[in-house]
Amino acid sequence: MACHADLVSQQLRGAQHAAPGELKQPESERHRQIDFLLADLVSDFIPGVSVYIDTPSGRYAASAGYADLQTRAPMTSQTRIPNGSAGKKLIGLLVAILDDKQLLRLDESILPWVPEDMAGRIQHLEVMTLRQLLNHSAGIVEYNDVGELDFIRAQLAQQANRKGNKFALRFVLDQPPYFEPGEGFAYSNSGYVLAGIVIENKLKQPLGQLLHEHVLEPLGLTETFVKGYDVAADDVASGYFFNMEEPDFVLPYRERYNTKQLIVNTALADAPVASSAQDMAKLLKAIVAKEKPVNERIHRNMVGDAYLQTAWWLPRFLDGALFYGLGVMVEKHEGGVLYHHGGNEFGYITQSVYLANQDVAIGLIANCGAQDECDEPVIALTETLNTLFSADSSD
């Protein structure tokens, strides 16, 4: 199968955004290089890719390949996909904002807002806090690691039905913790799932409503929608997984599988939204650069040194020391600080990075994921983009 790899690119200077459908040829050698990299990335395993880059001298968007292989709809700069774990920074920011508004507290016990039928089946809730859930220091077991692919099997069995946080949290019940809260670091999606339940129970509002009111609308993230809450969150590119290696795996062997229905119908707080590459870049930059409504206190709670956890076994791009805040990875390297957090699930992969010293924000999305033939080239492209922009402070 030969994939369409036509390149659609836009160069956006200052506040001058290209109108829908208006194409401008890339004006710099760097942009021509990025165009080539995107076109070269498209393959049987990577149907489509879109990137958005915000630099001090301008903004640039480009895309290649297909958003849907059946209809041949092209990937564009407006294409949205589920963000996977890259959406964790939205939950971290929401909680930091709610803490700043004194609507909840990051460091109070979550026990009063855990459903009674679950409270007795998760250890250490009386001393567990929202901050620990969000910076992966709570010790709560990862729901994906329970049993023999138990979660994905349950997902597939009900893929046409909407599934929320309680669906995933049930796999955590009665499981021994990794450690006592505050005594270690272990990346766990379950912490965000539990945090989503706690937030809704304490404030008596849907998570989607809270995200819109306190984060999406204040930041002007008009291309980001909450799964299971916004109808527009279902209007995303198809996602593709091609199982080439495991005949006994739960997804079909040697058959391209469209994961769109599976993923959009699983609405969990660890992967809460679908958005464009542009909104992903805008969100991370807003957090780090303290754009309203992010103030100094919110910024400090999210990525301040006093609250960072030393992160183990998580991806890094510039061979720096890696730390984890509230949904944001902080990589301190020779040339400065890189902030990032990607997402990876069946059929979708996302990357968002912010080079603080260069004031460069990058969002990247592709409609494949959870297999080496997709993940490795996409991560390599992200590393290349980091290198391109980390050498200087200007475009």
From TrEMBL:
Limits of the Beta-lactamase-related domain: 46-370
Annotated Pfam families: Beta-lactamase
InterPro entries, per database record: AmpC-like (IPR050491), Beta-lactam-related (IPR001466), Beta-lactam/transpept-like (IPR012338)
Gene3D superfamilies per UniProt: DD-peptidase/beta-lactamase superfamily
Secretion signal, residue range per the UniProt entry: none
SUPFAM superfamilies the UniProt entry points to: beta-lactamase/transpeptidase-like (SSF56601)
Residue segments, region Disordered: 1-28
Protein name: Beta-lactamase family protein
